[in-house]
Amino acid sequence: MTLGRQELGRKGERLAERFLRRRGMKTVARRYDTPLGEIDLVMQDGDTLVFVEVKTRTDPAHADPNDNIRANQQRHLTRAARWFIHHKRAEALPCRFDVALVVIPEAGDVEIRHFDNAFGPRARSR
């Protein structure tokens, strides 16, 4: 059975969330929409707020997170995270940006890889 692109993405987000919860993180928000873009998952790891970009693929050959999180996407996620932090009054919490890579092949087992602190916030351009 072939999943549509949106359905595949949502399934990957659910699997990633479950995986991270099993690792002790708590869910703060799912598919959080801001005027600056959507944040796939916002989790809490201890006292750290974690913004998680979930990438879901069907082909393990296209499952390199370095190829999937480009600089412009990092900037968009960083801006959305700043918006979230400001509007939730969470400025006092440390934060980080993680990537969860979910591979759902047509045949075989699902693979989930978690990249802790995958990238940092970009400096604002002046």
Which structural traits does this protein have?
126 residues; alpha+beta; Trna Endonuclease, Chain: A, domain 1; 31% helix; 37% strand
Can you describe this structure?
- The chain is α+β, with helices and mostly antiparallel strands.
- The protein has a single domain, classed as 3-Layer(aba) Sandwich (Trna Endonuclease, Chain: A, domain 1).
- It is 31% helix and 37% strand.
- The protein has three helices and five strands, in the order H-E-E-E-H-H-E-E.
- A five-stranded mixed beta sheet has the order 1-2-3-4-5.
- A hairpin with a 2-residue loop joins strand 2 and strand 3.
- The protein is globular, with a radius of gyration of 14 Å.
- The N and C termini lie far apart (49 Å).
Q: Low-confidence segments, ≥5 residues, pLDDT <50?
A: none
Sheet-strand content, in percent, reads 35-45%
What is the end-to-end distance?
A: 49 Å
Average pLDDT rating? 87
Order of strands across the biggest sheet?
1-2-3-4-5
Helix amount:
25-40%
Q: What is the highest CATH level, the class?
A: Alpha Beta
Please give the count of helices. Answer: 3
Name of the CATH architecture: 3-Layer(aba) Sandwich
Structural class: alpha+beta
Reading the helices and strands in chain order gives: HEEEHHEE
**Main beta sheet:** 5 strands, mixed
Q: Which term fits the overall shape?
A: globular
Overall number of domains = 1
| Strand element count | 5
CATH topology, which one? Trna Endonuclease, Chain: A, domain 1
